[in-house]
Amino acid sequence: MEVSGPEDDPFLSQLHQVQCPRVPADDACRAHQLSAAGPHRAGERAKGPSPPGAKRRRLSESSALKQPATPTAAESSEGEGEEGDDGGETERHCDADAADTAFGTGGGSRAHPRALAAEEIRQMLEGKPLADKMRPDTLQDYIGQSRAVGQETLLRPLLETNEIPSLILWGPPGCGKTTLAHIIANNSKKHSIRFVTLSATNAKTNDVRDVIKQAQNEKSFFKRKTILFIDEIHRFNKSQQDTFLPHVECGTLTLIGATTENPSFQVNAALLSRCRVIVLEKLPVEAMVTILMRAINSLGIHVLDSSRPGDPLSHSSNSSSEPSVFIEDKAVDTLAYLSDGDARTGLNGLQLAVLARLSSRKMFCKKSGQTYSPSRVLITENDVKEGLQRSHILYDRAGEEHYNCISALHKAMRGSDQNASLYWLARMLEGGEDPLYVARRLVRFASEDIGLADPSALTQAVAAYQGCHFIGMPECEVLLAQCVVYFARAPKSIEVYSAYNNVKACLRNHQGPLPPVPLHLRNAPTRLMKDLGYGKGYKYNPMYSEPVEQEYLPEELRGVDFFKQRRC
Ligand SMILES: Nc1ncnc2c1ncn2[C@@H]1O[C@H](COP(=O)(O)OP(=O)(O)OP(=O)(O)O)[C@@H](O)[C@H]1O
Q1: Whose CA is nearest to atom 7 of ligand 1?
Q2: Distance CA 67, CA 133 (A)
Q3: Which tens digit of pLDDT belongs to each residue from 57-110?
Q4: Does the pTM exceed 0.80?
Q5: Total count of domains within the chain
Q6: Residue 407 is part of which domain span?
Q7: Residue 346 in contact with residue 286, Cβ under 8 Å?
Q8: Distance (Å, rounded) from C-alpha 353 to C-alpha 391?
Q9: Residue 136 falls within a domain, yes or no?
Q10: Acidic residues composition bias: which ranges (predicted)?
Q11: Are residue 171 and residue 259 in the same domain, yes or no?
Protein backbone atom coordinates (compact mmCIF):
# COMPACT_ATOMS: atom_id res chain seq x y z
CA MET A 1 0.00 0.00 0.00
CA GLU A 2 1.42 3.35 -0.93
CA VAL A 3 0.65 6.09 1.53
CA SER A 4 2.37 8.96 -0.10
CA GLY A 5 4.26 9.93 -3.16
CA PRO A 6 4.69 12.68 -5.62
CA GLU A 7 1.45 13.74 -7.18
CA ASP A 8 0.71 12.42 -10.65
CA ASP A 9 4.13 11.93 -11.43
CA PRO A 10 5.68 9.28 -11.73
CA PHE A 11 8.84 9.96 -10.20
CA LEU A 12 10.93 10.98 -13.08
CA SER A 13 9.15 14.05 -14.36
CA GLN A 14 10.97 16.32 -11.93
CA LEU A 15 14.33 15.20 -13.12
CA HIS A 16 14.22 17.38 -16.20
CA GLN A 17 13.68 20.52 -14.17
CA VAL A 18 16.62 20.09 -11.86
CA GLN A 19 20.20 21.04 -12.48
CA CYS A 20 22.41 18.27 -11.20
CA PRO A 21 25.13 19.22 -8.72
CA ARG A 22 28.48 18.80 -10.43
CA VAL A 23 31.39 16.74 -9.34
CA PRO A 24 34.62 16.88 -11.36
CA ALA A 25 34.91 13.97 -13.75
CA ASP A 26 37.49 11.75 -12.23
CA ASP A 27 38.60 8.53 -13.73
CA ALA A 28 40.20 7.42 -10.55
CA CYS A 29 36.86 7.81 -8.91
CA ARG A 30 35.23 5.69 -11.57
CA ALA A 31 37.74 2.99 -10.91
CA HIS A 32 37.22 3.34 -7.22
CA GLN A 33 35.52 0.33 -5.80
CA LEU A 34 33.47 0.40 -2.68
CA SER A 35 36.08 -1.18 -0.57
CA ALA A 36 35.86 -3.22 2.57
CA ALA A 37 36.12 -0.06 4.61
CA GLY A 38 33.37 1.52 2.61
CA PRO A 39 29.82 0.60 1.81
CA HIS A 40 28.61 -2.95 1.86
CA ARG A 41 27.32 -4.61 -1.23
CA ALA A 42 23.97 -6.21 -1.55
CA GLY A 43 24.25 -9.90 -1.05
CA GLU A 44 27.87 -9.74 0.11
CA ARG A 45 28.99 -13.12 1.34
CA ALA A 46 31.36 -14.05 4.05
CA LYS A 47 34.22 -15.98 2.55
CA GLY A 48 35.49 -18.66 4.86
CA PRO A 49 38.30 -21.12 4.48
CA SER A 50 37.77 -23.99 2.08
CA PRO A 51 36.32 -26.99 3.78
CA PRO A 52 37.64 -30.49 3.55
CA GLY A 53 36.79 -32.03 0.21
CA ALA A 54 34.67 -34.75 1.73
CA LYS A 55 32.30 -32.27 3.25
CA ARG A 56 31.98 -30.41 -0.04
CA ARG A 57 31.22 -33.63 -1.84
CA ARG A 58 28.51 -34.64 0.58
CA LEU A 59 26.78 -31.31 0.12
CA SER A 60 27.05 -31.37 -3.61
CA GLU A 61 25.30 -34.71 -3.62
CA SER A 62 22.04 -32.97 -2.85
CA SER A 63 22.05 -31.83 -6.44
CA ALA A 64 18.27 -31.92 -6.71
CA LEU A 65 18.20 -28.79 -4.58
CA LYS A 66 21.02 -26.93 -6.28
CA GLN A 67 20.71 -23.46 -7.79
CA PRO A 68 24.02 -22.27 -9.16
CA ALA A 69 24.66 -18.54 -9.32
CA THR A 70 25.97 -17.28 -12.66
CA PRO A 71 26.84 -13.60 -12.72
CA THR A 72 27.96 -11.89 -15.90
CA ALA A 73 31.62 -11.25 -16.50
CA ALA A 74 31.15 -7.51 -16.13
CA GLU A 75 29.46 -7.92 -12.79
CA SER A 76 32.09 -10.27 -11.53
CA SER A 77 34.92 -7.99 -12.52
CA GLU A 78 33.31 -4.93 -11.00
CA GLY A 79 32.36 -6.80 -7.91
CA GLU A 80 29.24 -4.76 -7.50
CA GLY A 81 27.37 -6.37 -5.10
CA GLU A 82 24.80 -8.84 -5.86
CA GLU A 83 24.34 -12.43 -4.93
CA GLY A 84 26.78 -14.41 -6.90
CA ASP A 85 29.19 -11.55 -7.42
CA ASP A 86 32.02 -13.92 -6.82
CA GLY A 87 30.45 -16.64 -8.84
CA GLY A 88 33.25 -16.63 -11.42
CA GLU A 89 35.85 -17.89 -8.97
CA THR A 90 36.49 -21.56 -9.23
CA GLU A 91 38.00 -22.30 -5.83
CA ARG A 92 35.72 -20.27 -3.65
CA HIS A 93 33.61 -22.95 -2.05
CA CYS A 94 33.14 -23.01 1.65
CA ASP A 95 30.58 -24.63 3.88
CA ALA A 96 28.27 -21.69 3.75
CA ASP A 97 28.58 -21.23 0.02
CA ALA A 98 28.05 -24.86 -0.75
CA ALA A 99 25.15 -25.04 1.62
CA ASP A 100 23.67 -21.89 0.08
CA THR A 101 23.24 -23.64 -3.19
CA ALA A 102 20.92 -26.10 -1.57
CA PHE A 103 18.50 -23.36 -0.58
CA GLY A 104 16.08 -21.34 -2.57
CA THR A 105 14.11 -24.15 -4.12
CA GLY A 106 11.11 -25.96 -2.83
CA GLY A 107 7.71 -24.35 -2.54
CA GLY A 108 5.73 -23.69 0.57
CA SER A 109 3.64 -26.85 0.42
CA ARG A 110 3.66 -29.57 3.03
CA ALA A 111 4.41 -32.24 0.43
CA HIS A 112 7.29 -34.46 1.50
CA PRO A 113 10.62 -33.45 0.05
CA ARG A 114 13.44 -35.85 -0.59
CA ALA A 115 14.60 -36.97 2.86
CA LEU A 116 18.06 -35.77 3.76
CA ALA A 117 20.31 -37.32 6.34
CA ALA A 118 20.54 -35.54 9.68
CA GLU A 119 24.24 -34.86 9.21
CA GLU A 120 23.58 -33.29 5.81
CA ILE A 121 20.94 -31.04 7.34
CA ARG A 122 23.22 -30.07 10.20
CA GLN A 123 25.90 -28.99 7.74
CA MET A 124 23.42 -26.99 5.71
CA LEU A 125 22.36 -25.14 8.86
CA GLU A 126 25.86 -24.20 9.88
CA GLY A 127 27.37 -20.85 8.89
CA LYS A 128 25.04 -18.08 7.83
CA PRO A 129 21.66 -17.69 9.55
CA LEU A 130 18.93 -19.69 7.86
CA ALA A 131 16.98 -16.45 7.23
CA ASP A 132 19.82 -15.14 5.07
CA LYS A 133 20.16 -18.39 3.19
CA MET A 134 16.45 -18.44 2.48
CA ARG A 135 16.25 -14.85 1.24
CA PRO A 136 14.28 -15.04 -2.01
CA ASP A 137 15.85 -13.76 -5.23
CA THR A 138 12.63 -13.24 -7.16
CA LEU A 139 9.23 -11.67 -6.64
CA GLN A 140 7.67 -15.10 -7.21
CA ASP A 141 9.20 -16.30 -3.96
CA TYR A 142 8.36 -13.09 -2.11
CA ILE A 143 5.47 -14.13 0.11
CA GLY A 144 2.61 -11.95 1.32
CA GLN A 145 2.78 -8.15 1.08
CA SER A 146 0.23 -8.20 -1.71
CA ARG A 147 -1.05 -4.76 -0.73
CA ALA A 148 2.38 -3.34 -1.40
CA VAL A 149 3.69 -5.36 -4.32
CA GLY A 150 0.80 -7.60 -5.43
CA GLN A 151 -0.21 -7.99 -9.08
CA GLU A 152 -2.80 -5.21 -8.80
CA THR A 153 -0.46 -2.60 -7.36
CA LEU A 154 1.12 0.28 -9.27
CA LEU A 155 4.52 -0.81 -8.09
CA ARG A 156 4.42 -4.34 -9.45
CA PRO A 157 4.83 -3.54 -13.18
CA LEU A 158 7.55 -1.04 -12.30
CA LEU A 159 9.41 -3.72 -10.38
CA GLU A 160 8.97 -6.22 -13.17
CA THR A 161 10.30 -3.84 -15.80
CA ASN A 162 12.92 -2.50 -13.45
CA GLU A 163 11.63 1.06 -13.72
CA ILE A 164 12.39 1.62 -10.08
CA PRO A 165 11.31 4.90 -8.53
CA SER A 166 12.93 6.18 -5.36
CA LEU A 167 11.28 4.28 -2.53
CA ILE A 168 11.05 4.27 1.22
CA LEU A 169 10.18 0.77 2.46
CA TRP A 170 8.53 1.10 5.83
CA GLY A 171 7.58 -1.90 7.94
CA PRO A 172 8.27 -3.86 11.11
CA PRO A 173 11.39 -6.01 11.53
CA GLY A 174 11.65 -9.14 9.42
CA CYS A 175 8.71 -8.34 7.14
CA GLY A 176 10.81 -8.27 3.97
CA LYS A 177 12.18 -4.75 3.40
CA THR A 178 15.77 -5.83 2.79
CA THR A 179 14.49 -8.82 0.86
CA LEU A 180 12.52 -6.62 -1.52
CA ALA A 181 15.63 -4.51 -2.05
CA HIS A 182 17.60 -7.69 -2.65
CA ILE A 183 15.11 -8.79 -5.32
CA ILE A 184 15.39 -5.38 -6.98
CA ALA A 185 19.18 -5.74 -6.85
CA ASN A 186 18.89 -9.10 -8.53
CA ASN A 187 16.75 -7.68 -11.32
CA SER A 188 18.99 -4.65 -11.69
CA LYS A 189 21.89 -6.94 -12.42
CA LYS A 190 20.02 -8.22 -15.47
CA HIS A 191 19.45 -4.65 -16.67
CA SER A 192 23.04 -3.51 -16.10
CA ILE A 193 21.99 -1.19 -13.32
CA ARG A 194 24.39 -0.76 -10.44
CA PHE A 195 23.02 -1.57 -7.03
CA VAL A 196 24.94 -0.33 -4.03
CA THR A 197 24.07 -0.96 -0.41
CA LEU A 198 24.86 1.18 2.61
CA SER A 199 23.79 0.60 6.16
CA ALA A 200 22.99 3.79 7.99
CA THR A 201 24.20 2.19 11.21
CA ASN A 202 27.84 2.32 10.14
CA ALA A 203 28.11 4.41 6.96
CA LYS A 204 29.75 7.83 7.23
CA THR A 205 28.93 10.92 5.20
CA ASN A 206 32.08 10.27 3.17
CA ASP A 207 30.76 6.86 2.17
CA VAL A 208 27.64 8.54 0.85
CA ARG A 209 29.77 11.04 -1.08
CA ASP A 210 31.83 8.22 -2.59
CA VAL A 211 28.70 6.49 -3.78
CA ILE A 212 27.39 9.71 -5.29
CA LYS A 213 30.65 10.48 -7.05
CA GLN A 214 30.82 7.05 -8.55
CA ALA A 215 27.16 7.19 -9.56
CA GLN A 216 27.79 10.48 -11.38
CA ASN A 217 30.73 9.02 -13.24
CA GLU A 218 28.82 5.89 -14.15
CA LYS A 219 25.99 8.01 -15.42
CA SER A 220 28.06 10.41 -17.47
CA PHE A 221 30.56 7.93 -18.89
CA PHE A 222 28.56 4.74 -19.25
CA LYS A 223 24.94 5.99 -19.08
CA ARG A 224 24.58 3.48 -16.29
CA LYS A 225 22.03 3.98 -13.56
CA THR A 226 22.74 3.47 -9.85
CA ILE A 227 20.32 2.33 -7.22
CA LEU A 228 21.44 3.08 -3.68
CA PHE A 229 19.86 1.00 -0.93
CA ILE A 230 20.17 2.44 2.56
CA ASP A 231 19.14 0.09 5.32
CA GLU A 232 17.80 1.72 8.48
CA ILE A 233 17.71 5.10 6.78
CA HIS A 234 16.13 6.62 9.88
CA ARG A 235 19.50 6.36 11.55
CA PHE A 236 21.01 8.89 9.15
CA ASN A 237 20.88 12.37 10.59
CA LYS A 238 19.49 15.34 8.72
CA SER A 239 22.75 16.48 7.20
CA GLN A 240 23.53 12.97 5.96
CA GLN A 241 20.10 12.75 4.38
CA ASP A 242 20.64 16.20 2.84
CA THR A 243 23.81 14.94 1.15
CA PHE A 244 21.98 12.81 -1.34
CA LEU A 245 18.80 14.83 -1.69
CA PRO A 246 19.85 16.82 -4.82
CA HIS A 247 21.24 13.69 -6.45
CA VAL A 248 18.00 11.84 -5.96
CA GLU A 249 16.19 14.84 -7.33
CA CYS A 250 18.25 15.01 -10.49
CA GLY A 251 18.26 11.30 -11.09
CA THR A 252 21.93 10.52 -10.47
CA LEU A 253 20.71 8.05 -7.90
CA THR A 254 17.58 6.10 -7.30
CA LEU A 255 17.24 5.81 -3.56
CA ILE A 256 15.68 2.88 -1.75
CA GLY A 257 15.55 3.41 1.99
CA ALA A 258 14.35 0.84 4.52
CA THR A 259 13.05 1.85 7.91
CA THR A 260 11.11 0.43 10.81
CA GLU A 261 10.27 3.97 11.92
CA ASN A 262 7.48 6.19 10.70
CA PRO A 263 9.20 8.02 7.84
CA SER A 264 7.10 11.15 8.41
CA PHE A 265 9.18 11.76 11.51
CA GLN A 266 12.47 10.15 10.61
CA VAL A 267 13.05 11.09 6.98
CA ASN A 268 13.58 14.68 5.81
CA ALA A 269 10.38 16.07 4.38
CA ALA A 270 12.17 17.16 1.19
CA LEU A 271 13.56 13.68 0.64
CA LEU A 272 10.28 12.05 1.54
CA SER A 273 8.45 14.08 -1.06
CA ARG A 274 10.75 12.65 -3.73
CA CYS A 275 10.14 9.05 -2.73
CA ARG A 276 7.22 6.68 -2.74
CA VAL A 277 6.54 5.25 0.67
CA ILE A 278 5.75 1.55 0.48
CA VAL A 279 4.19 0.22 3.64
CA LEU A 280 5.04 -3.42 4.29
CA GLU A 281 3.04 -5.19 6.93
CA LYS A 282 3.73 -7.83 9.54
CA LEU A 283 3.57 -11.14 7.70
CA PRO A 284 0.32 -12.96 8.45
CA VAL A 285 0.46 -16.45 9.94
CA GLU A 286 -0.36 -18.14 6.60
CA ALA A 287 2.51 -16.31 4.90
CA MET A 288 4.80 -17.33 7.74
CA VAL A 289 3.77 -20.97 7.27
CA THR A 290 4.61 -20.73 3.56
CA ILE A 291 8.01 -19.18 4.29
CA LEU A 292 8.80 -21.81 6.93
CA MET A 293 7.65 -24.63 4.68
CA ARG A 294 9.91 -23.39 1.91
CA ALA A 295 12.84 -23.67 4.32
CA ILE A 296 11.69 -27.02 5.70
CA ASN A 297 11.37 -28.45 2.19
CA SER A 298 14.74 -27.08 1.16
CA LEU A 299 16.29 -28.75 4.17
CA GLY A 300 14.65 -32.04 3.27
CA ILE A 301 12.79 -32.23 6.58
CA HIS A 302 9.53 -34.22 6.68
CA VAL A 303 6.39 -32.73 8.22
CA LEU A 304 4.41 -35.19 10.34
CA ASP A 305 0.66 -35.05 10.29
CA SER A 306 -0.37 -35.03 13.97
CA SER A 307 -3.91 -36.17 13.11
CA ARG A 308 -2.56 -39.58 12.07
CA PRO A 309 -2.30 -42.03 14.98
CA GLY A 310 0.65 -44.25 15.81
CA ASP A 311 4.33 -43.72 16.25
CA PRO A 312 5.08 -40.83 13.92
CA LEU A 313 8.68 -41.82 13.50
CA SER A 314 7.77 -45.14 12.01
CA HIS A 315 5.57 -43.63 9.27
CA SER A 316 8.09 -42.72 6.72
CA SER A 317 10.52 -45.10 5.23
CA ASN A 318 13.91 -43.77 4.44
CA SER A 319 16.01 -45.48 1.83
CA SER A 320 19.18 -43.92 3.15
CA SER A 321 20.99 -45.70 5.97
CA GLU A 322 21.47 -42.28 7.62
CA PRO A 323 18.78 -40.97 9.96
CA SER A 324 16.32 -38.38 8.70
CA VAL A 325 14.62 -35.44 10.35
CA PHE A 326 10.91 -34.86 10.98
CA ILE A 327 8.96 -31.92 12.32
CA GLU A 328 5.48 -31.97 13.83
CA ASP A 329 2.95 -29.98 11.79
CA LYS A 330 1.78 -28.22 14.94
CA ALA A 331 5.38 -27.17 15.57
CA VAL A 332 5.33 -25.40 12.21
CA ASP A 333 2.04 -23.69 13.04
CA THR A 334 3.24 -22.65 16.48
CA LEU A 335 6.45 -21.24 15.06
CA ALA A 336 4.50 -19.30 12.43
CA TYR A 337 2.19 -17.93 15.11
CA LEU A 338 4.83 -17.02 17.69
CA SER A 339 7.09 -15.30 15.19
CA ASP A 340 4.65 -12.41 15.18
CA GLY A 341 4.99 -11.64 11.49
CA ASP A 342 8.80 -11.56 11.59
CA ALA A 343 10.17 -14.08 9.10
CA ARG A 344 13.73 -13.72 10.36
CA THR A 345 12.64 -14.70 13.85
CA GLY A 346 10.70 -17.67 12.50
CA LEU A 347 13.48 -18.98 10.27
CA ASN A 348 16.21 -18.51 12.83
CA GLY A 349 14.01 -20.11 15.50
CA LEU A 350 13.58 -23.09 13.20
CA GLN A 351 17.33 -23.25 12.65
CA LEU A 352 18.07 -23.24 16.38
CA ALA A 353 15.41 -25.84 17.10
CA VAL A 354 16.75 -28.23 14.45
CA LEU A 355 20.38 -27.70 15.40
CA ALA A 356 19.63 -28.15 19.11
CA ARG A 357 17.73 -31.37 18.47
CA LEU A 358 20.48 -32.74 16.21
CA SER A 359 23.18 -31.90 18.77
CA SER A 360 21.25 -33.50 21.63
CA ARG A 361 20.96 -36.64 19.49
CA LYS A 362 24.74 -36.74 19.27
CA MET A 363 25.16 -36.15 22.99
CA PHE A 364 22.69 -38.90 23.73
CA CYS A 365 24.74 -41.30 21.62
CA LYS A 366 27.96 -40.35 23.35
CA LYS A 367 26.47 -40.63 26.84
CA SER A 368 24.75 -43.93 26.25
CA GLY A 369 27.89 -45.35 24.69
CA GLN A 370 25.97 -46.33 21.58
CA THR A 371 28.02 -46.73 18.48
CA TYR A 372 25.04 -45.88 16.25
CA SER A 373 22.58 -42.95 16.18
CA PRO A 374 18.86 -43.23 16.66
CA SER A 375 17.61 -43.55 13.12
CA ARG A 376 15.12 -40.67 13.20
CA VAL A 377 14.94 -37.24 14.76
CA LEU A 378 11.71 -35.44 15.60
CA ILE A 379 11.42 -31.67 16.07
CA THR A 380 8.52 -31.02 18.44
CA GLU A 381 6.46 -27.99 19.32
CA ASN A 382 8.55 -27.57 22.49
CA ASP A 383 11.75 -27.58 20.49
CA VAL A 384 10.59 -24.69 18.34
CA LYS A 385 9.40 -22.77 21.39
CA GLU A 386 12.83 -23.14 22.92
CA GLY A 387 14.49 -22.23 19.63
CA LEU A 388 12.38 -19.10 19.48
CA GLN A 389 13.15 -18.12 23.04
CA ARG A 390 16.84 -18.36 22.46
CA SER A 391 16.81 -16.45 19.20
CA HIS A 392 14.36 -13.86 20.45
CA ILE A 393 15.41 -13.43 24.12
CA LEU A 394 11.76 -13.84 25.01
CA TYR A 395 11.15 -10.34 23.81
CA ASP A 396 8.47 -9.51 21.36
CA ARG A 397 9.13 -6.02 20.06
CA ALA A 398 5.72 -5.53 18.57
CA GLY A 399 3.53 -7.39 21.03
CA GLU A 400 2.74 -7.58 24.70
CA GLU A 401 6.32 -7.95 25.93
CA HIS A 402 7.12 -4.56 24.46
CA TYR A 403 4.42 -2.93 26.61
CA ASN A 404 5.14 -5.10 29.66
CA CYS A 405 8.81 -4.19 29.72
CA ILE A 406 8.35 -0.46 29.16
CA SER A 407 5.74 -0.46 31.90
CA ALA A 408 8.14 -2.27 34.25
CA LEU A 409 10.87 0.26 33.43
CA HIS A 410 8.54 3.18 34.10
CA LYS A 411 7.43 1.75 37.44
CA ALA A 412 10.95 0.88 38.53
CA MET A 413 12.11 4.47 37.89
CA ARG A 414 9.03 5.82 39.66
CA GLY A 415 9.88 3.56 42.60
CA SER A 416 13.47 4.90 42.54
CA ASP A 417 14.89 1.40 42.07
CA GLN A 418 17.97 2.01 39.96
CA ASN A 419 18.87 -1.69 39.64
CA ALA A 420 15.47 -2.72 38.37
CA SER A 421 15.39 0.31 36.08
CA LEU A 422 18.65 -0.72 34.44
CA TYR A 423 17.50 -4.33 34.21
CA TRP A 424 14.30 -3.50 32.31
CA LEU A 425 16.17 -1.11 30.06
CA ALA A 426 18.71 -3.81 29.15
CA ARG A 427 15.95 -6.40 28.64
CA MET A 428 14.43 -4.20 26.02
CA LEU A 429 17.58 -3.06 24.26
CA GLU A 430 19.14 -6.53 24.20
CA GLY A 431 15.88 -7.85 22.83
CA GLY A 432 16.18 -5.45 19.91
CA GLU A 433 13.87 -2.68 21.09
CA ASP A 434 14.14 0.60 19.24
CA PRO A 435 16.14 2.95 21.51
CA LEU A 436 14.06 5.90 20.32
CA TYR A 437 10.94 4.23 21.67
CA VAL A 438 12.56 4.02 25.11
CA ALA A 439 13.89 7.58 24.80
CA ARG A 440 10.41 8.89 24.01
CA ARG A 441 9.09 7.25 27.17
CA LEU A 442 11.87 8.90 29.19
CA VAL A 443 10.84 12.31 27.88
CA ARG A 444 7.33 11.63 29.08
CA PHE A 445 8.56 10.31 32.45
CA ALA A 446 10.63 13.47 33.02
CA SER A 447 7.48 15.58 33.15
CA GLU A 448 4.96 13.09 34.43
CA ASP A 449 6.91 11.72 37.39
CA ILE A 450 9.71 14.16 38.14
CA GLY A 451 8.20 17.41 36.94
CA LEU A 452 9.19 20.53 38.83
CA ALA A 453 10.95 18.53 41.54
CA ASP A 454 13.86 18.60 39.09
CA PRO A 455 13.02 20.52 35.93
CA SER A 456 16.37 19.64 34.34
CA ALA A 457 15.14 16.03 34.02
CA LEU A 458 13.25 17.06 30.90
CA THR A 459 16.43 18.50 29.39
CA GLN A 460 18.23 15.25 30.20
CA ALA A 461 15.56 13.19 28.50
CA VAL A 462 15.43 15.31 25.36
CA ALA A 463 19.22 15.25 25.18
CA ALA A 464 19.18 11.45 25.53
CA TYR A 465 16.59 11.22 22.75
CA GLN A 466 18.65 13.38 20.44
CA GLY A 467 21.84 11.53 21.33
CA CYS A 468 20.17 8.22 20.45
CA HIS A 469 18.99 9.72 17.21
CA PHE A 470 22.51 10.88 16.33
CA ILE A 471 24.48 7.77 17.16
CA GLY A 472 22.03 4.87 17.19
CA MET A 473 22.58 1.46 18.76
CA PRO A 474 24.71 0.06 20.25
CA GLU A 475 26.55 3.28 21.19
CA CYS A 476 23.45 5.01 22.49
CA GLU A 477 22.64 2.37 25.08
CA VAL A 478 24.83 4.06 27.68
CA LEU A 479 23.04 7.39 27.11
CA LEU A 480 19.79 5.72 27.96
CA ALA A 481 21.34 3.95 30.95
CA GLN A 482 22.63 7.28 32.30
CA CYS A 483 19.25 8.90 31.89
CA VAL A 484 17.41 5.97 33.46
CA VAL A 485 19.64 6.00 36.55
CA TYR A 486 19.34 9.79 36.81
CA PHE A 487 15.57 9.41 36.80
CA ALA A 488 15.55 6.56 39.31
CA ARG A 489 17.60 8.71 41.69
CA ALA A 490 15.76 11.99 41.03
CA PRO A 491 13.17 13.46 43.44
CA LYS A 492 9.65 12.84 42.16
CA SER A 493 6.67 15.14 41.81
CA ILE A 494 3.40 14.60 40.04
CA GLU A 495 2.10 18.03 41.01
CA VAL A 496 1.90 19.44 37.48
CA TYR A 497 0.76 16.16 35.97
CA SER A 498 -2.15 15.83 38.43
CA ALA A 499 -3.13 19.46 38.18
CA TYR A 500 -3.23 19.21 34.40
CA ASN A 501 -5.35 16.06 34.64
CA ASN A 502 -7.74 17.96 36.90
CA VAL A 503 -8.09 20.67 34.28
CA LYS A 504 -8.78 18.08 31.58
CA ALA A 505 -11.39 16.40 33.80
CA CYS A 506 -12.98 19.78 34.44
CA LEU A 507 -13.30 20.41 30.71
CA ARG A 508 -14.65 16.93 30.00
CA ASN A 509 -17.23 17.09 32.79
CA HIS A 510 -18.46 20.56 31.94
CA GLN A 511 -22.18 20.67 31.17
CA GLY A 512 -23.36 22.98 28.38
CA PRO A 513 -21.33 25.46 26.39
CA LEU A 514 -17.89 26.34 27.72
CA PRO A 515 -17.75 29.75 29.43
CA PRO A 516 -16.57 32.62 27.23
CA VAL A 517 -13.10 34.12 27.64
CA PRO A 518 -13.56 37.12 29.98
CA LEU A 519 -13.61 40.36 27.98
CA HIS A 520 -10.76 41.97 29.92
CA LEU A 521 -8.43 39.08 28.92
CA ARG A 522 -9.17 39.41 25.21
CA ASN A 523 -6.82 41.19 22.86
CA ALA A 524 -8.31 44.18 21.02
CA PRO A 525 -6.35 44.75 17.81
CA THR A 526 -9.21 46.61 16.03
CA ARG A 527 -11.44 49.55 16.92
CA LEU A 528 -14.55 47.41 16.66
CA MET A 529 -13.15 44.98 19.22
CA LYS A 530 -12.28 47.84 21.54
CA ASP A 531 -15.83 49.17 21.11
CA LEU A 532 -17.13 45.73 22.07
CA GLY A 533 -15.23 45.94 25.34
CA TYR A 534 -12.33 43.64 24.49
CA GLY A 535 -9.38 44.23 26.79
CA LYS A 536 -11.37 46.73 28.89
CA GLY A 537 -10.23 46.87 32.50
CA TYR A 538 -7.23 44.67 31.96
CA LYS A 539 -4.44 45.47 34.40
CA TYR A 540 -1.00 45.18 32.75
CA ASN A 541 1.02 43.60 35.58
CA PRO A 542 4.42 45.20 34.92
CA MET A 543 2.80 48.60 35.52
CA TYR A 544 2.05 47.69 39.11
CA SER A 545 4.55 47.50 41.94
CA GLU A 546 2.14 45.51 44.13
CA PRO A 547 0.47 42.16 43.32
CA VAL A 548 -2.48 42.79 41.02
CA GLU A 549 -6.02 41.84 41.96
CA GLN A 550 -7.39 40.42 38.76
CA GLU A 551 -9.35 37.32 37.69
CA TYR A 552 -7.87 35.10 35.00
CA LEU A 553 -10.36 32.23 35.00
CA PRO A 554 -13.87 32.39 33.59
CA GLU A 555 -16.41 33.78 36.03
CA GLU A 556 -17.94 30.42 36.90
CA LEU A 557 -14.58 28.88 37.83
CA ARG A 558 -13.58 31.65 40.16
CA GLY A 559 -11.59 30.31 43.12
CA VAL A 560 -10.97 26.85 41.64
CA ASP A 561 -7.58 25.35 42.55
CA PHE A 562 -6.60 22.55 40.22
CA PHE A 563 -3.53 21.83 42.32
CA LYS A 564 -5.63 20.92 45.35
CA GLN A 565 -8.82 19.37 44.18
CA ARG A 566 -9.48 16.39 41.98
CA ARG A 567 -12.57 17.72 40.21
CA CYS A 568 -14.03 21.13 39.58
N1 LIG B 1 7.95 -11.50 2.15
C2 LIG B 1 8.88 -12.46 2.36
N3 LIG B 1 8.88 -13.58 1.61
C4 LIG B 1 9.81 -14.54 1.82
N5 LIG B 1 10.78 -14.46 2.76
C6 LIG B 1 10.82 -13.37 3.54
C7 LIG B 1 9.88 -12.31 3.37
N8 LIG B 1 10.15 -11.36 4.27
C9 LIG B 1 11.20 -11.77 4.96
N10 LIG B 1 11.62 -12.99 4.53
C11 LIG B 1 12.71 -13.79 5.11
O12 LIG B 1 13.07 -13.17 6.34
C13 LIG B 1 14.43 -12.74 6.32
C14 LIG B 1 14.51 -11.38 6.96
O15 LIG B 1 13.80 -10.46 6.14
P16 LIG B 1 14.36 -9.01 5.79
O17 LIG B 1 15.83 -8.93 6.06
O18 LIG B 1 13.90 -8.64 4.44
O19 LIG B 1 13.59 -8.16 6.87
P20 LIG B 1 13.55 -6.61 7.08
O21 LIG B 1 12.14 -6.17 6.92
O22 LIG B 1 14.57 -5.92 6.22
O23 LIG B 1 13.93 -6.54 8.62
P24 LIG B 1 14.82 -5.50 9.47
O25 LIG B 1 14.03 -4.24 9.58
O26 LIG B 1 14.95 -6.17 10.80
O27 LIG B 1 16.13 -5.35 8.75
C28 LIG B 1 14.86 -12.77 4.87
O29 LIG B 1 16.21 -13.13 4.76
C30 LIG B 1 13.96 -13.83 4.26
O31 LIG B 1 14.54 -15.09 4.40
Answers
A1: 176
A2: 12
A3: 222 223 323 333 333 333 333 333 333 333 332 222 323 333 333 444 445 555
A4: no
A5: 3
A6: 400-492
A7: no
A8: 10
A9: no
A10: 77-88
A11: yes
